[in-house]
Amino acid sequence: MKKISVIALLMSFLLGGCAGLNEMLGLPVNKGNGYSIKHTKEIYSGGVHIEYQDHDFLVEEIKKKMANRMAPLEDTQNAIFNAPIGGRIFVHYEQLTIGAANTKWLEYVIKRDGQEVYRKMGNNRIANVPTDSSAAVRFWWNTDGFDITTYLGDEFEVYVISHLAGKKDHFKVIKKSKEKT
User: Fold this and answer.
1) Which helix or strand (DSSP H or E) is residue 138 part of?
2) 114: helix, coil or strand?
3) Band of the pLDDT at 32, cuts 50, 70, 90?
4) pTM of the model
5) How far, CA to CA in Å, does 86 sit from each of 103, 106, 146, 154?
6) With contact defined as beta carbons under 8 Å apart, do 147 and 84 qualify?
7) What proportion of the chain, given as a percentage, has pLDDT over 70?
8) Long-range CB contact pairs, 10-13, < 8 A, 24+
């Protein structure tokens, strides 16, 4: 039985790649919700991952939430109207110490067609306690999120700059229907 489990785990790793295995183990992965995210990593002392939710995704989530609440149509329409046109980005950040995992050390830059459309410093948030799902090394972790009020289109880039490490991670976000095969 143990041999079958090992083989199944190996097959899922080979078929699904590292992201599939990381997600199975409860580790953070880049999540695009209909977009692929290509990650160029420079910040190696911990980890940076992003999640992108476009406007359409947010509208569907609002509709589900408001239907569950049995909210009046006017409330639903107002919530949809206030959904950020460029969507929402979450940055998941891990570091070896509580101080280093504070997102105040981060800066976020978004570019579309090579032009900067958004820049924001990370929030001053104390990191969360390491969990067992952080693999063998227990990382302090944090999450920062922000709404984008500018339309981003089907392809854009996100840079997460660490002022503590003096490095940056680069994420290229492409709508899956627009990806070159």
Assistant:
1) none
2) coil
3) low
4) 0.78
5) 22, 21, 10, 10
6) yes
7) 76
8) none
User: What are 179's two structure tokens?
Assistant: 């990806």
For 31, 65, 67, 81, the CA distances from 36, given in Å and listed in that order, are 8, 26, 29, 26
Nearest to 90 by CA among 158, 41, 138: 158
Strand partners, 112: 115
Give the DSSP H or E segment for 50.
strand 47-53
Between the alpha carbon of residue 12 and those of residues 38, 81, 135, the distances in Å are 21, 41, 18
In Å, what is the CA distance from 16 to each residue of 9, 19, 20, 88, 176? 10, 7, 5, 26, 17
Q: How many CB atoms lie within 10 A of CB 90?
A: 14
Q: How far apart are CA 51 and CA 32, in angstroms?
A: 6
- CA–CA separation, 165 and 68 (whole Å): 44
Question: CA-based angle 157:159:161, to the nearest 5?
Answer: 175
Q: Is pLDDT at 11 greater than 60 in this prediction?
A: no
Q: Contact at 8 Å (CB) between 156 and 173?
A: yes
Tokens of 156: 């854009």
